[in-house]
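Q: How would the structure tokens look for this protein?
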Amino acid sequence: MDSIYQSIETLSKEKGIDAQIVLDAVKDAMLIAARKHFRTVENYEAEFDEKNGGMRLFAVKTVADPVVDPSIEMTVSEARRFDPLAEVGAVIRIPKPTDALGRISAQTAKQVIFQKVREAERETIYREYADRVGELVNTTIKRIEGLDLVVDLGKTEARLPKREQSRLESYSAGDRVRCVIKIVDKSAKGPGVVVSRADAELVKRLFEQEVPEIYDGTVTIRGCAREAGERTKIAVSSRDRDVDSVGACVGMKGMRVQSIIRELRGEKIDIIEYSDDPVTFATHALSPAKISRVTILDPAERHMEVIVDDSQLSLAIGKKGQNVRLAAKLLGWKIDIKSEEEKRQEVQNAIEQLSTGAPVSALIEHGLAEATVDALVKGNIGTVERLGGMTPEELEALEGIDEEAVNRIQQAINRFYGQEYVEEQAANAVEASSGNPAPAEAAENPDIPENNAASAPDDTIMESAESAADGGVEVDSAAESGEEQVP
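A: Here is the predicted structure in token form.
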């Protein structure tokens, strides 16, 4: 125990933590070891002996009269053996031999000390790196643990997981790599710092290092979307009209961006000029494809439709959808890409659907639930005419349509066609009430003048209108006999 203070100082310097934290850990470890060795429920205290550099252990008891719990209380007479002036209520510290703590107790103390030191070390690391998330750091590969790499940050170790590595890269122990700090976690069992080579922040930090205009704030990085090892799209803008933001990032003969591409092992980088207008920004973001037009479908939901020439469709979508996926991530919008031919076909189908009959949504006015209409639309049942030609078995085969829904559909269709029939009959009645004969009747009575409505008496017109309103069509008797009406 004599050299324990020197050991504490050495340990605190090696781990870079406060010596008092280590000292408190040693005290806690001694108390645990004492309870385990003496097997009592006494209260213990440990303190550092500055004279000999060791630790001292005491059992603490309170003077009481009468004594209720002997393990934590003692009588006045017993207390005065340690303190002649002790009275009731005084706290007496009774020295305990530390050399009595056996090998097992010492091992327990060692484990507790290590645990406390690790906790203090993690806390120190957390305070050191918590504010440095996103910072570019130079590291050295220390060892390989499975698919993950453990790198040396100088003061501590950090983990470079497989998911944070680029697929184009492979490393060996001793290699130097530049990473960004991504996560700092003081509750982790292993290294509390996680670094990344796949995060978009790495590209941003590399551009800041290579492009002085970005470092001094003349050019600003407005967004970055990356698929590590494949492609990166970075949007930049300039605060100075005389400075070309894209040109500054590319550099003379592409030297600046080529330096970053080499650092990323050949990953493709698209530098895009930022725009506050989403239409213009989308046109830039989908480069190298040429965009015909962009339509905002839903500003609230940030949804747009992009039309490209048929020959540009595959270029706009990119390999496995990569180009449009990165563009959508960069913009923060949902992008639907269609070719000119697909858009023409879509418009033509919509026109044909409208011309073939009423949409099924018209049945909502006749008591059909919106959920049922949505289920029909999802089943590609777009018109009432097509719905009316389906059997109950075909309807029940659709998702979301049961027997009860089929009954409601049939009732809605009946009401729909019933209304159409009533409207048709009313239209015929109005036409008949105007006095114009039907084409067949006019052929049988060629002597009836075409402007018969104008020559009919007012009371005849009123009588015909009243008859039409009653639901029937009554033809004037003079017209039936073929007699010419006298005005």
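The longest strand covers residues 54-63.

Residues 434-481 form one domain.

Upvote if useful.
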